[in-house]
Amino acid sequence: MLRFYEKRTWFFSSKSIRDISLVLLGFVIVMCAQAQGGPPPGGPKGGGGPMAGIGLPLGFLEADKDYKFPDDITKYTANDFLMLVRRTDIRSSFYNSDMNATITTVNVSPTRGTFVTKEQIFRRDKDDAFLMLTLEPESRKGQGMLRVDNNMWRYDPTSRKFTHTTLKDTYENTTVTNNDFRRWQRSIDYSVEKLSVGTLGNYKVIIGELKANNDEVPFPYIKMYIEADRKIVLKVEEYSLSMKLLRTAYYTQYVQIGDSFVPTVQIFQDGLVPEKRSQVTYTNISTKSLPDYYFTKEYLERVSQ
Questions:
Q1: Are 202 and 34 contacting, i.e. CB atoms less than 8 angstroms apart?
Q2: Mean pLDDT of the residues in the chain
Q3: Is residue 179's pLDDT more than 60?
Q4: Are the beta carbons of 261 and 245 closer than 8 angstroms?
Q5: Domain 17-304 is found in CATH 3.30.470.20
Q6: Beta strands 113-124; 129-136: pairing state
Q7: Which residues does 211 contact at the CB level (< 8 Å), separation at least 6?
Q8: Are 268 and 249 in contact (CB under 8 A)?
Q9: Helix (H) or strand (E) holding 91
Q10: Higher pLDDT, 26 or 80
């Protein structure tokens, strides 16, 4: 049941993560349509401060604020849809503050069974930087990942060595990629090729087919399902160059924090191995300012010990 509190936070009740992971796949499309939170129609708009930020086009945040979308979803142009994607990018990120949260991931694999990991993430979206530390399982505690200055590093406290990695790489051989932990910026990384309208559960959606304009992203083609009224992403299909479906992402729960609408439950279904999937859940989200030294190799080394 959707609830409203004085802190202007929307959230959903949830079952045990372990239980959900075993039954969620069969109901995920229904959940995607029926269990969505997000802003009600006509709710507060997204936006950001005046900073440009690393990798942000000039005016990226400012142009979003007063953009007028068509009332009729069949009238959307490619530019309208790209601005809609930009709106979802901005509102799912934290450009006016830092962010830290606990991430719990339930992974289901035909070879490894069901296993759970837990991380602490620290993000500074205006700089496209984040640091993530593994909390569980105990055998991996202290391992970390750092993205700063467009470089990404994995750190192993046992060997005390950094290994360069990329946004394309999968995280711990799951259906999650490193790219899933950063700020959303699909409107920067992709261009719109085709539009259509349809339904997902009980919701009318605009469906955009997009092509990557750089080789840093994990998937060269994606198909986005966005509910126009609330301007939230419900589903993203991700394809190879040959248009083979590699993964489907479902965003089934959102929470509002300030002007941000964060997808707190994200489900990633492998397109090639149907039995393989991951559910990522964000909790304990805070927007307190973080020291600059958090986003350094030296700090990662120190806290990993």
A1: yes
A2: 85
A3: yes
A4: no
A5: no
A6: antiparallel
A7: 190, 191, 193, 220, 221
A8: yes
A9: helix 78-91
A10: 80
Is there a contact between 279 and 105 (Cβ–Cβ < 8 Å)?
A: yes
Q: Could you state, in order of their start, the residue ranges of all structural domains in the chain?
A: 17-304
* Residue-wise burial string across 54-89, b where 16 or more C-beta atoms lie within 10 A, e elsewhere: eebeeebbeebeeeebeeebeebeeebbbbbbbbbb
What is d(CA 142, CA 144) in angstroms, rounded to the nearest whole number?
6
What is the chain's length?
Answer: 305
Residue 47 has pLDDT above 50, yes or no: no
- Tell how far CA 112 is from the center of its chain: 25
Query: Token digits for 112?
Result: 């490894």
Residue 16 has pLDDT above 80, yes or no: no
- Tell me the average pLDDT across 9-19: 39
Residue listed under structure tokens 């707190």: 264
pLDDT of residue 14: 41
pTM: 0.83
Question: Which tokens in the block code for residue 207?
Answer: 């469906």
Q: Which helix (H) or strand (E) covers residue 243, if one does?
A: none
Pick from 50-54, 229-233, 244-248 the range whose average pLDDT is largest.
244-248
| CA 2 to each of CA 68, 109, 286: distance values in angstroms, whole numbers, following the listed order | 28, 32, 21
What's the token pair of residue 2? 């959707």
**Residue 45 vs residue 278, higher pLDDT:** 278
Please, which residues have CB within 8 angstroms of residue 26's CB and are 6 or more apart in sequence? none
